[in-house]
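Please fill in the sequence for the structure shown.

STRUCTURE ENCODING:
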C-alpha cells in the first residue's frame, strides 16, 4: 500500500479490507535471481502464490543468473523453536521446500527470529554436500530488538529457555549485525558482520559448481574451522578412533598418578561432596 513493489500480485484478506497487493515478486541483479515470497498469506499448493513461485523458478535462465535466492519472513528452519510457528514451518517444508529443491535454489534467507543462524545445505532437515538439491538456509533477523529467547544462558536472565544446537545448525549467534551478499558468475558469498566490532564472524561461499564452502572466525560456536572446509566433510573414523584411544590412555595415566599422590590423604575431606565446576555451554 505504501511502496511501489515490483510485483503485480493480489491476495484477498478474507475481511472487508481491500486485497493485499505485490507481496511476492522476483527480479534479477547481476548473476543472482531474487524471489520474494509472503509467508503471511496462502503459499499452499494450488494457490496463486504457489503457482507464481513454481512458474518463476522453472523459468530462471541459469546461464544469465546461475544463483537463485529466495527470501521470506518466517523461517523454514530455525532452532529458536517457537511453538506458535511450528505449523507454519511444517507447511513450508511440505509445500514450498520441494519447489526450492527441484529447481536448485542456492540460498534461502529468512527473518522473524531476531538472531543470526546458518544451516548446512539442507533438504527435509537433512544435510547435503552441495547446494544443488539442498539449499543453504540463513536466518538473518539480527538487526535489533533483543526480545527473542536466547540460546546461551546469561547471569541476569537465568530463566530463559536454551535450545540445543543440532548438527544442521552450522553457526548461530545472538549478536546484532547485518549480512553482505557479493556475487559473480563463479560464486555467491554471504558474510555476517557484527555490530559490536564491525568484524566478519561467519562466511559461506556457494560455488557455481554446487559446492558449499563455509567458515567462521568464532571458535566458541559449533561450526566448521576458519580454514574453510566443505560442509558435510568430516574427519575419517580412523582419525577419531586414534584420537579417542590416545585420550583414554592419557586419562588412565593421569588418574593413576593423581591417585598415587592423594592415596594418603583419603578421608581428609567429607564423602559425597560435590565441587562445582564452571561450565560454559556453547
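FILLED IN BY: designer on duty
SEQUENCE:
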Amino acid at each position: 500500500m505504501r511502496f511501489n513493489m515490483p510485483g503485480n500480485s493480489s491476495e484477498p484478506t478474507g475481511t472487508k479490507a481491500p486485497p493485499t497487493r505485490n507481496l511476492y515478486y522476483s527480479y534479477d541483479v547481476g548473476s543472482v535471481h531474487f524471489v520474494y515470497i509472503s509467508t503471511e498469506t496462502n503459499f499452499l499448493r494450488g494457490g496463486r502464490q504457489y503457482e507464481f513461485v513454481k512458474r518463476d523458478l522453472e523459468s530462471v535462465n541459469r546461464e544469465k543468473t546461475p544463483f537463485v535466492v529466495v527470501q521470506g519472513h518466517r523461517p523454514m528452519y530455525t532452532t529458536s523453536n517457537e511453538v506458535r510457528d511450528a505449523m507454519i514451518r511444517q507447511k513450508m517444508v511440505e509445500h514450498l521446500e520441494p519447489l526450492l529443491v527441484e529447481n536448485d535454489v542456492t540460498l534461502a534467507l529468512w527473518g522473524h527470529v531476531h538472531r543470526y543462524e546458518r544451516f548446512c545445505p539442507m533438504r527435509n532437515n537433512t544435510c547435503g554436500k552441495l547446494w544443488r538439491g539442498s539449499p543453504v538456509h540463513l536466518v538473518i533477523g539480527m538487526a535489533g530488538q533483543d526480545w527473542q529467547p536466547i540460546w546461551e544462558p546469561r547471569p541476569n536472565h537465568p530463566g530463559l529457555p536454551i535450545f540445543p544446537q543440532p548438527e544442521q545448525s552450522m553457526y548461530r549467534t545472538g549478536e546484532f549485525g547485518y549480512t553482505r551478499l557479493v556475487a559473480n558468475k563463479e560464486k555467491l558469498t554471504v558474510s555476517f558482520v557484527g555490530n559490536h566490532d564491525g568484524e566478519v564472524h561467519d562466511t559461506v561461499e556457494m560455488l557455481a559448481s554446487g559446492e558449499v564452502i563455509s567458515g567462521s572466525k568464532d571458535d566458541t560456536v559449533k561450526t566448521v574451522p576458519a580454514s574453510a572446509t566443505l560442509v558435510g566433510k568430516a574427519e575419517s573414523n580412523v582419525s577419531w578412533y586414534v584420537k579417542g584411544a590416545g585420550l583414554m590412555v592419557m586419562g588412565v595415566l593421569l588418574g593413576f598418578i593423581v591417585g598415587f599422590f592423594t592415596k594418603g590423604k583419603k578421608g581428609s575431606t567429607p564423602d559425597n561432596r560435590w565441587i562445582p565446576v564452571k561450565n560454559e555451554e556453547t
